[in-house]
Amino acid sequence: MGSLKAVRLPKLTAILAFETAAKMGSLARAAACLSLTPAAVSQQIRQLEQHLGIQLFARSKSGVELTKQGSAYLAYVQQAFETLRVAQQSLERDKGDLSLNIFALPALASRWLNPSLKHWLTQHPDIDIRIHATHSAVDFNRTAADFYLAFGDEYYPQQEKEVLFQDWVFPVASPNLLTTAWSEGKHHINYPMIHVDWGKEGQFLPDWHEWLLSAKWSQCTPNRGPIYNLTAMAIDSALAGNGILLGQQHLIKKELADGRLIQLSDHKLPVTKPYYLIYPKRTLDKPKAAEFIQWLHSLC
């Protein structure tokens, strides 16, 4: 029982009276602000002081002044009230929330989602789309995320998940890099090779050594070239003519279509883990969420 008494909180009305009096510097002005009598405000503050076992104010004829302990307590009170105010504002916004918060791997956001986003925005001008690029796992309980475009689904056993697509890699290059007309039959590549290092996730992404062996090209040792940990940067590097790249089919569709990248071989290797759409069940309660899911699948 003693432990429960020690953590029992004061009445919220008493804390509010204290904060208001501290802000106004006067019990009378605090009373007017709270639509109470000065005697009622004074009583609530005395009850708060008795509960805490400290003196919060030094009283005088001109008003009240915070003690050292009162000033320290006020800082915590103001922080707590601000948290409550922000929470209320957030809940009020959510009542009529017409936004979808999309968390996504950077390459998926910039190379797969963005090129087609204009179509969705045109069809649904009343829905705000907020995109947050991240490589970190998404905690749906601690973020505003409605959807996460992820590589694999193993970290989300409790969430809804749908396969978006399984990708493939094949060699591509900027036409500005190729000094002569490309012929796959030549097999020997005299250009730098752009490499992508995904760290532990790299086991799911075929590299140049695997592709060269699988394609049975005479050149089985990869050429040196720049190494990137981000797929989007590696694609930018290929576009800049810095080397040839094992490009992911779904992430370079636009560049292939407009001729900024050229496919150098029909031989493809699969990325051995699919890309997923992850979301909590509550997301389906938001306006147009179900339509957004259908639209994402149409891009695949």
From TrEMBL:
<dbReference type="InterPro" id="IPR058163">
    <property type="entry name" value="LysR-type_TF_proteobact-type"/>
</dbReference>
<keyword id="KW-0805">Transcription regulation</keyword>
<keyword id="KW-0804">Transcription</keyword>
<dbReference type="Pfam" id="PF03466">
    <property type="entry name" value="LysR_substrate"/>
</dbReference>
<feature type="domain" description="HTH lysR-type">
    <location>
        <begin position="10"/>
        <end position="67"/>
    </location>
</feature>
<dbReference type="InterPro" id="IPR036388">
    <property type="entry name" value="WH-like_DNA-bd_sf"/>
</dbReference>
<protein>
    <submittedName>
        <fullName>LysR substrate-binding domain-containing protein</fullName>
    </submittedName>
</protein>
<comment type="similarity">
    <text>Belongs to the LysR transcriptional regulatory family.</text>
</comment>
<dbReference type="Pfam" id="PF00126">
    <property type="entry name" value="HTH_1"/>
</dbReference>
<dbReference type="InterPro" id="IPR036390">
    <property type="entry name" value="WH_DNA-bd_sf"/>
</dbReference>
<dbReference type="InterPro" id="IPR000847">
    <property type="entry name" value="LysR_HTH_N"/>
</dbReference>
<dbReference type="InterPro" id="IPR005119">
    <property type="entry name" value="LysR_subst-bd"/>
</dbReference>
<keyword id="KW-0238">DNA-binding</keyword>
